[in-house]
Design brief:
Blueprint lengths: L5 E7 L5 E7 L2 H11 L4 H40 L7 H50 L2 H6 L3 E8 L4 E7 L2 E7 L8 E2 L38
Helix pairs in contact: 2-3
Length: 225
């Protein structure tokens, strides 16, 4: 998605934390680009939609058919209480077989849909990566020489995130990330203005909690003779 086609919004979580979310600035244009991107997979995409609709229909039809089997049990029980033939187990077994077949078919279609969808996503991402790689390979070497790079000096896991020390020229940076990078790797750092957080720190004279030293000429009581 191009930078001109997305906007950044600040979202706050229930625990007070905030995260930056992105959404399409022009949903119609983004949808058209997505459809064009999926054009080579149009047959598979249509198959995914069809299988999804049919599987959901079968899954929603199952409880209705199961209710018919329940009616056979209830009607047969009341019939037996009144001296009738009781529960027709042959009809009950037939209805349960239909219910089982419907659920199995719905599950099979849902699994097939997921398998096809996974293939569509993988092939689409592969084409995207190939296009990006072709564009990068076309860039001149002087372009990379002009871009600032840094070297990872160390990486330490802090229990929740990784703390890495990065040196870029004369500048040393302390980077926190959920992804680890091996020391010695060359990295590039970009900072989004919306990701910068400024914390207010009150300015005041430092408080010294230590006991004052005894004045010159005063003797310690434990050393008195």
């Amino acid at each position: 998605m191009k930078a001109t086609e997305r906007i950044v919004s600040q979202q706050h979580g229930p625990m007070g934390g905030g995260q930056v979310g992105q959404k399409a600035h022009d949903f119609k244009a983004s949808t058209k680009r997505l459809v064009r991107r999926l054009t080579p997979e149009r047959v598979s995409a249509l198959s995914v939609i069809t299988l999804a609709v049919v599987s959901v229909f079968l899954m929603s039809l199952g409880p209705r058919l199961l209710g018919h089997a329940t009616n056979v049990i209830v009607e047969g029980w009341f019939s037996g209480q009144q001296g009738g033939p009781g529960i027709d187990f042959t009809e009950l077994a037939h209805k349960l077989e239909i219910v089982l077949a419907v659920y199995l078919l719905g599950s099979l279609l849902a699994g097939t849909q997921g398998w096809i969808l996974n293939g569509v996503v993988q092939r689409t991402i592969q084409r995207l990566r190939a296009e990006v790689e072709d564009k990068v390979n076309d860039l001149p070497l002087e372009y990379f020489d002009r871009q600032p790079r840094g070297e990872v000096l160390s990486a330490l896991f802090k229990g929740v995130h990784w703390e890495m020390r990065v040196r870029a020229g004369e500048t040393a940076l302390l980077v926190h990330s959920t992804h680890a990078i091996e020391p010695g790797a060359q990295v590039r750092i970009t900072v989004d203005p919306d990701d910068i957080h400024i914390m207010h720190k009150s300015a005041g004279a430092p408080v010294d909690d230590r006991e004052p030293a005894p004045a010159a000429g005063e003797a310690n009581s434990s050393n008195d003779i």
